[in-house]
Amino acid sequence: MNHVERLQKVMAAAGIASRRKCEEMILNGLVEVNGEIVKTLGVKVDPAVDRIVVGNKPIRSEKKLYLMMNKSKGVITSAKDPQGRKVVSDFLPGIKERVYPVGRLDYDTEGLLLLTNDGEFANLLTHPSHHVPKTYRATVKGVPHGTQLEKLQAGIKLEDGMTAPAEVEYHDVDTDKNEATITITIHEGRNRQVRRMFEAIGHKVIRLKRIRFGELGLESLGRGKYRHLTPQEVKELFDLAHSKSHKVHKK
Fold first, then answer.
1. 106: annotated active-site residue
2. Which domains does the chain have, with CATH numbers?
3. Residues whose CB is less than 8 angstroms from the CB of residue 109 and which lie 6 or more positions away in sequence, other chains included
4. Which among 106, 108, 172, 176 is annotated as catalytic?
5. What percentage of the chain reaches a pLDDT higher than 70?
6. SS in 3 state form for the chain?
7. Any idea which of 38-42, 54-58, 60-64, 155-159 has the lowest mean pLDDT?
8. Distance of alpha carbon 48 from alpha carbon 61, whole angstroms
9. pLDDT tens-digit series, residues 102-155
10. Which pick of 83, 148, 196, 228 has the fewest CB atoms within 10 Å?
């Protein structure tokens, strides 16, 4: 039986990139179907029948991989780095498939990073409308007053607009060092968002670690190590993204 899908969805499912990136590749004339360059997004294909070529390479369906990594500080969240710095793929021994990060963690940020070759999964978890919660532990210079943390809880104005309300609580205070460690949960994924939020209330982030993605935590996963997600964990992340999307749309 034929299984016809939109071209960008088939590309994403084959692990080429997220669906949005695949759409850009189509619009830029980088994709051929049965020898013809396709530049429109409405084309439907059957991956079992049609020959789809991206960048002169035929695509094939790969086994879906879902990984969780405890990224170390000083590692780039990308496939390669022109400056020769360490990238996340350097820490994935035994993984032959090309996987890419679900969202990003800054060079100086450590902690929980998801990687996959499932473009639909990546797109679902990173799309702004789905508001999947991500929890960080931030050590900041100085000790913010409760009123300052309330600003983060309510949403704070950054140069790219207001943030969504965050969940914020003290984790530890070191009066000798004049530092505070604060747990913050955000529901967006803007560039350097947590650092910018604390800077907006006058406290520079010294250390930052993502400790949860949805209900998924690092637990005992060592720094620089990775493991495969269980089918149940993958299902829970899919379900969470769908449920968050529905809650947002109901407002």
1. yes
2. 5-58 (3.10.290.10), 66-128+216-250 (3.30.70.580), 133-213 (3.30.70.1560)
3. 71, 73, 208, 209, 210
4. 106
5. 95
6. CCCCEEHHHHHHHCCCCCHHHHHHHHHCCCEEECCEEECCCCCEECCCCCCEEECCEECCCCCCCEEEEEECCCCECCCCCCCCCCEHHHHCCCCCCCCEECCCCCCCCEEEEEEECCHHHHHHHHCHHHCCCEEEEEEEECCCCHHHHHHHHHCCEECCEECCCCEEEEEEEECCCCEEEEEEEECCCCCCHHHHHHHHCCCCEEEEEEEEECCEECCCCCCCCEEECCHHHHHHHHHHHHHHHHHHHHC
7. 60-64
8. 9
9. 988 999 999 999 999 888 888 889 887 778 899 999 999 999 998 999 999 999
10. 83
The two structure tokens encoding residue 7: 């071209």
Amino acid identity of residue 128, one-letter, is: P
Q: How many residues belong to the chain?
A: 251
